[in-house]
Amino acid sequence: MTLTRSSDGRSVAGRAALITGAGSGIGRATALLLAAEGARVAAADCKLEAVESVAAEITAAGGEALACQLDVCDDSQVCSVVEQTVEAYGALDILVNCAGIALPAAFGDEEAWERTLDVNLKGSMRTIRAALPRLRASDAGRVVNIASTDAQVATPMMSAYTVSKHGVVGLTRALAVELADSGVTVNAVMPGPINTGMTAAIGEDDRRRFARRRVALRRYGEPVEVAQAILNLVLPASSYTQGACLRVDGGMLTVA
């Protein structure tokens, strides 16, 4: 028996990736990680200065990056960013939907519900719809959506967010079946407590107490730890992973 180390499929080098919500948090970490692994990155966010900073950091390190302003609630902007990516790189192989918001609001707050669902759920639908023809043309089209452990549990005053993340899981599973014959894989990651802008308002002592009580690893995670899970899902070698919803929560939902 001969053991042969295979590098084919275990690299994203040369792949064209569009990452929404890339100006901060998990999106930023994903853009930096994929670029470090050799991907050509289109970093998109509603805050242009933020993604310009990310793109500058990537190019300064010798990578390829494009900064795009994007409101995922605007169909024309979504289509434009997809085309900018293809124009720059000649292809689109990877789509990572990190754009999202979390608005604490009472159940009856219709404005919060509409805004949250529009960004978190319909935003992912819009980007997938716009990118799909290009992803189909790739030999290894990959979509990763960012859900949340709130897709399995719930938090008070966050009903709209919880429902939106249940929807992201449903979207992921539905498209995994619907697109199965296309060669495009559709998966999701479900982050637990992560040190991002969304959790920055929680006091440090409160975060520490929560982690000690509820998280098996007894700490909050870092955005790059979620990005590493995303990297595994977008590899060409991850060709038989379809409709998976991968928890990256430090064992939070494992703790009794």
Task: Give the tags.
256 residues, alpha/beta, Rossmann fold, seven-stranded parallel β-sheet, 7 strands, 43% helix, 14% strand, globular
Give a written overview of the molecule.
This protein has 256 residues and is α/β, with parallel strands linked by helices. It has a single domain (16-254), classed as NAD(P)-binding Rossmann-like Domain (Rossmann fold). It has helices at residues 25-36, 48-60, 75-89, 110-137, 159-178, 204-214, 223-234; strands at 16-20, 40-45, 64-69, 94-97, 142-146, 185-191, 245-248. A 7-stranded parallel β-sheet has the order 3-2-1-4-5-6-7, with helices on both faces.
Report the count of strand segments.
Answer: 7
Task: Please tell me what the overall shape is.
Answer: globular
What percent strand?
Answer: 5-15%
What is the H-and-E element order? EHEHEHEHEHEHHE
When the domains are counted, the total is 1
Average pLDDT taken over every residue? 95
Number of helices: 7
Please report the first level of CATH classification, the CATH class.
Alpha Beta
- What is the H level of CATH, i.e. the homologous superfamily? NAD(P)-binding Rossmann-like Domain
| Radius of gyration, taken over Cα atoms and rounded to an integer in Å | 18 Å
Largest sheet: 7 strands, parallel
Helical/strand content category: alpha/beta
Helix % is: 40-55%
